[in-house]
Amino acid sequence: DPNEDTEWNDILRRFGILPPKEKEKDEIEEMVLLLQKEAEGKWLIFLSFVVKPYERMNLEELKEAEDDFDEADRKAIEMYRQQRLKEWKCLQRMQKYGELREISGDQYVQEVTNAPEDVWVIIHLYRSSIPMCLLVNKHLNLLAKKFPEVKFLKAIVNTCIPNYQDRCLPTILVYKSGEIKSRFIGVSECGGMYLKVEELEWKLAEVGAVETDLEENPRKPITNMMTRSVQNISAHEDTNTQSSDVMKPCIT
């Protein structure tokens, strides 16, 4: 199925063998138009209730009559203007993000470190030969659609960090304002081989990268904390000793 979300289809699309998934782009554009119409509707309702004496004026006439507004009208208009500005920024991001994009090591600084300061960036370093990496990519692709204001990226680890150990994969790095805010290194920290998309969403929400609508952690507490701690310490030690020096040029 050429429309199926698989690593193989992603590779074929990158080489131009399969066409891009236009349907997803169309759905995003339709959503943007819908939100724009909804925002315009809110503006008309706002005019009718807040600045009722001017409800029959167009925007240009309203601008000219601005001096006649009282203080309450001015405050209400400014509040609504700020709201509209936030909505517009959200719409712009929906058109810009909303998918899990592939980058290479030479794009790291531009796409990750130099991303806009108010944008969260989540990048997954992976190998396609590791099943857990494929699972994480699948989940991140779904989360990218759910949280289009967040920049979701993936990169084959060798293009960013030579000689990176397989035992440290998957590696998920969370950035904001050019700095690493959190990291999940290895199968255990990423959630285990049976990781569900809701569990990954909760992890990202805990570090502030996404605003989840989940009410509680979907994963029940793990009783054997000693085993998990040993795995985490081992993964961190291996990361620090084997790849810390070669990682610096890519993620500073």
TrEMBL record:
Entry-linked SUPFAM superfamilies: Thioredoxin-like
GO cellular component: cytoplasm
Phosducin domain span: 56-209
InterPro entries assigned: Phosducin-like_chap/apop_reg, Phosducin_thioredoxin-like_dom, Thioredoxin-like_sf
Domain of life: Eukaryota
BP terms from Gene Ontology: protein folding
Family named by the database record: Belongs to the phosducin family.
PANTHER family listed in its UniProt record: PHOSDUCIN-LIKE PROTEIN 2, VIRAL IAP-ASSOCIATED FACTOR HOMOLOG
Listed name of the protein: PDCL2 protein
Source organism: Zapornia atra
Top-level taxonomy: Eukaryota, Metazoa, Chordata, Craniata, Vertebrata
